[in-house]
Amino acid sequence: MSLSDPSRTAARGVLDSNRGFEISWDAPDAIAASALPYFPTEATSARPTEIARYRLERSWGGNPFAASDDDGTQLSGRNAPSPTDSPAWGFDLLAAFPPADMAPGSHADLVHAIETFEAAVLRYGDDITYRVYSVDATGRESPARTSAPTPLRKFVRPPVPATPPVVAPVDPAAVSPSGVQVRLYQQGDPELTASQRARTAGSDVAHLRWGWGPTQRDLDPDVAEFRVYEHDAPLTEIRGRTTSFAVATATGWSLPVQFDTPVAANEFAGIVLVFGVAFRIVSHAAGTTVTLALAPNVVNAGVAPSQGEFTVGRTTSAEFNSEYWHRRVAIVPRVPASAGSDVVEEYEVTLPATWIAVDAARTRQKLAIGVTAADAEAYVADRRIATETLPRAGNESTVAAVEVTARYFGRPSLAIADLADVAALRLPRQGGDDVHGTLRPADAFPAGFVAAPRMRLERVPAGAVLPRLRITPASIELVSSTGTATEWALSAPDQAALRAEDAAGMISDRFLAHAAARLDGLEAKSTFLRIVDPAQPFTD
User: What dotted CATH number matches 6-151?
Assistant: First the structure.
């Protein structure tokens, strides 16, 4: 079998990433049972039929059988791995994890041999046939025992994609980012350069860059493509919601919930979540729709968990595997560099960021984007075979992931309110040149207004305000004391009302009062009356 075969890895407890085979065969008997009566029982020398060595040969690609390791001599032991103890409370640490140089605990009935090949000699997928001869102490060979043709296979995950080449110019004081690089270009971002805005082509996009250098090529020269993924949330955040009411149990509460991604059994055991009040998770099954076993609240054991949504942090490393991600969005073929080159292969892809849904109510949105490297070994099933419409075979690396944040760049919309009404004092017709009236300033205050105990009263004539109110068909403006005109932002109803009053030749007190509050330099034409108590009547 291939050295990286999953069954061999499971038996050994460690992956062998070498390119080659483990060959095993039954050790023949030292002497035929029928010949034992003729062999002297007092003899101390080895029996003449005792196996002294083996000769191993192999053939591939239609070539004749040829010996491995020069003459093919194989002096293989029959040692079996030392038995191990299962990890549990009170177990023997050295028994569960014996040292590598520990003497074997027993012998095995099979003889084992290991042979590795360079890529230039034997490619993955090529069939090889082995045959073995046993040779006794006198040099006699047995008939050959021949294996079935067996393909060389690879079950080793490639390394993750690496840092892309540096884009000049480079700030010598800056720390270059490492790993996969992702830049989110949003149409509303005011800091986009002209070239960046051109890259967006009128829509929000995510631009990815990564590299594949000589180190990665040395580790795995068979990588054929890169796969790009998206995950619709912060990478280690799992969202959940209750699906029914909690049920009291003998030990606490049973609460049905649904997660947005599958979870491992008891992944969140021991974690405290708040369902109205705090509850500790005791256990739960694996899957998406599960039931949480909750311990009672430590303060009030009788209070039941409430309904609602919640989030919990991932406690495993599942996010490093592609099957954890929500979707595969792109396949980028690898373009190999020339043999022996030290250049870093550069790859980039621009993805539509249609997932962005930010607005004034949701100003931030996080998403993870990841890239894996994969070979094209047809016998290795796609890790996402259960979810992909078009699965892609091959060993796939762990995910090189980056989280990006979409931001809301819009500005708050301004709704111009109608000008408030102002208090008006109407005086009766009076004789003579002087007109007198009594007012109480506090009567004109809006609801909820708290006045100071003293107030300065000034009288501003309408003739000081009207010349500085400029109404034209195109705009309504207020003119400052220096002669600068500024547009007066009015609601549509107020604009219509003011234009109508201007056309009739009578501007109402409401517009005059609000204009006076916005104009500077009216002190020169105003008349100071008195410092008054606003709660007391005042006669002018």
Answer: 2.60.40
